[in-house]
Amino acid sequence: MTDIAIKRALLSVSDKSGLAELGATLAAHGVELVSTGGTAKALRDAGLAVRDISEITDFPEMMDGRVKTLHPMVHGGLLAVRDNAEHVAAMEAHGIGAIDLVVVNLYPFAATVAKGAERDEIIENIDIGGPSMVRSAAKNHAFVAIVTDPADYATLTEEMNASGGATTLAFRRKLAAKAYAATAEYDAMIASWFAFADQGEMYPEKLSVPFRKGQALRYGENPHQSAALYLPAFAPGGSLADHRQVQGKELSYNNLNDADAALELVAEFRDGPPTVVIVKHANPCGVASGDDLVSAYKAALQCDSVSAFGGIIAVNRPLDGPTAEAISDIFTEVVCAPDADDAAKAVFAKKKNLRLILTGDLPDPARGGIALRTIAGGALLQSRDNGRITRDDLKVVTKRAPTEQELTDCLFAWTVGKHVKSNAIVYAKDGATAGIGAGQMNRRDSARIAAAKAREAAETYGWSQPRTVGSSVASDAFFPFADGLLAAVEAGATAVIQPGGSMRDDEVIAAADEAGLAMVFTGMRHFRH
Fold this sequence. Notes:
Blueprint: E1 4-5, E2 8-13, H1 19-28, E3 32-35, H2 37-45, E4 51-52, H3 53-57, H4 72-79, H5 85-94, E5 101-105, H6 109-114, H7 119-124, H8 129-139, E6 145-147, H9 153-162, E7 166-167, H10 169-198, E8 211-216, E9 228-232, E10 244-247, H11 253-267, E11 275-280, E12 283-289, H12 293-303, H13 305-308, E13 311-315, H14 321-327, E14 332-337, H15 342-349, E15 355-358, E16 370-375, E17 378-383, E18 395-396, H16 404-417, E19 425-429, E20 432-437, H17 443-461, E21 472-475, H18 483-491, E22 495-498, H19 505-515, E23 518-521
Parallel strand pairs: 2-3, 2-5, 3-4, 5-6, 13-14, 14-15, 21-22, 22-23
Antiparallel strand pairs: 1-7, 8-9, 10-15, 11-12, 11-13, 16-17, 18-23, 19-20, 19-21
Helix pairs in contact: 4-8, 8-10, 12-14, 14-15, 17-18
């Protein structure tokens, strides 16, 4: 027999939403309700008859509620195999009544951590009895139904109504799978907090990182690949983890991957002037700051308007109507913004396929945390690249020091270069990228590709010369030879920012001096693979 009639239910929940309605449904089916503490009170307040758990265990709740359900009268009623004669005899000998349904959701551990509670309060919000009941009921799902999510109350009601107050084995199996996922996530949250927050272990011996499915995606990197978005339990504010999609088609893996790259880069400017980032295939193809978003967008687009087609745009200010109008002139996949005014939303409403994502804030670029990626048979874990450079960190290594404008452009190019795939070369002038070279196998080719893009932009817009002339150029890692720097000289750059540290630094410095360049070393590298 796979259908099990629910005669007795044990309810113990932290989240009381939907509890009264569920209790009424169970009572209508003649189910005896057994409950604990605050849950029992909530059910009684709803006018329902409830037996306290202490009546079942003949033992009072004690130690501030730490001990109430950890008792053979409870777990015997959950774990007993109903068609096993020895189990049945043990139940009869000890007066253990069967429990057919358990409704449990656990102490709000993650929410307690998120609100910045003190350590003692966090520890008190580690549930012990709840997970124990969940695991017992889930193990014995052949006879017991376990509900851990209020979202499943309606499904349980439908199941009981369709089965005359019973549950089917198929339904109980689904609930059991969900229950073990819930306790696994809960334990992972606790283990993660102990390791990273409480003990300060960046690389614990056993890694537990809880993720929950946020949404299914249209597809993966390619249409024949499936994909889904998973969100961490302790997500930073202003990230794609808590985004709100206002309009547009469903998101794909590539959309979110590129949107994340754009958001992380524009966040570097969250305290700066209005700034726009355009990303294609996780690489910026145009970045600019301006007096307002629309002027910043136009300057960013002019860096590489060819690559911008079908790109991802992120801005560091609430999106306005004029900027939305300008963006609408070419095909854009996704626009990310902290917010958007009604005029901007009205403009984009005419572009039904364009996805507008609002994050409510921007992530802190200096935040700590870990970066995780899989490899064949394992995973790589590292701290986030939150390294930042100020003017005081720079070391002038050439005979000529950079001018104030060159220095400003150097730092702008350096900030962008941190988010460009290696080998990365970024030319910048007057607060806008002039050319970006990404992902090449040698630095010289990146410098030449970026310069070629600048020349193409000059032809497109009818400029007398490329914007690389008089620009500052950033390299994400040192120049191993002088050829990459000489390519920047050919493009018209007048200042260079790079980490330094090559065996041939003296050769590169000499080449810069001979060309009359100013060059500064950062002492920090920003490889991005």
